[in-house]
Structures are given as C-alpha cells and as structure tokens.
Amino acid sequence: MTEWTRLFGIDLRRTQCGAMAAVLLIAMWQPLPALASCSFRSVTDVGFGTYNVFDTLPNASGVGSITIKCQGGGGNAYDVTLSTGQSYSYASRSMKSGANALSYNIYTSATRSIVWGDGTGGSSTQTVYKNSTATLSLFGQIPAGQDVANGTYTDDLIATVNF
What we know:
There is one protein chain. The chain has one helix and ten strands, in the order E-E-H-E-E-E-E-E-E-E-E. A five-stranded antiparallel β-sheet has the order 3-4-9-7-6, with no helix packed on it. A hairpin with a 2-residue loop joins strand 6 and strand 7. It is mainly beta. The longest helix has 13 residues. The chain starts with a strand and ends with a strand.
C-alpha cells in the first residue's frame, strides 16, 4: 500500500526515500544568510602633478579615493587589498614611462606611514563593513631625489574586496 502526502505543493511518497526527501525539504526552509556582495561605486585616480627632480622633500600631493558598497554576507567586516602594480613589491611601487621608472607608494592615511597592500611585506589592508557604503582614501607619495626623464608616469593597481 502506497500512501501519498502533499506538503507545500509537493507530493511525497511515504517510503524510505520519501522520508529523506521530506528532511531535505525542511532543511531548505531554514533561513540562509544572504551572500556577500560588494561593488565599486567610484574611483578617483591618485594624481601627483609634476614631479620636480630637484625637490629635497617627497611629493606627497597624491590623494585618490575608492567608494565601495557592500551588502549581505555572514561577516561584519571585509578586507580591501591593493596590488603591487608593476613593481611586484610593497616595499616600493613603481610608475613607468617607457623604460623609465619612478618609485612611489600608496598609504592608508595622510601620515603616509603604513603602506596599503595585502597584509604581506609590511603592508596593511583597509576595512569596509557589510550593509554600508565606504569611501577609502589613497594617500600617495613619491620619494625625493629620483633623477628621471620627462614623461607621463603611470601604474595600475587592482583593489580587491575579500569577504
């Protein structure tokens, strides 16, 4: 004798397999946490202006920003990392103009004492929080005393939100 039950619009046969299906269906009705989702809302380049090879002080005029919106997810805080760019090192990043290179770095604050990276090589990460929008500032500095050729020096960094 086969007995059928209708549960939430789904017919279940009362057998050993039917009991398993019922258990899975009940487990599916448990609330699940929303998946984390973050998006970059805006990015402002770090522009240093003109670098003067004769200056004795570092060029600390470079300031940019990243605005990130995060929602959902299980944790409260997410790390935001920056790549090394063309230099492959957090000790000193490098902008290039053809074959010429100009050392610089990006820092987590206006004091320019902690390099923004991925947490390795003496670098640190920044933090954003779920269900919020945050604007993170990038503070750039070019060390003084670099004898470089005239040109437009650029580097590309990748920002990553880890959740």
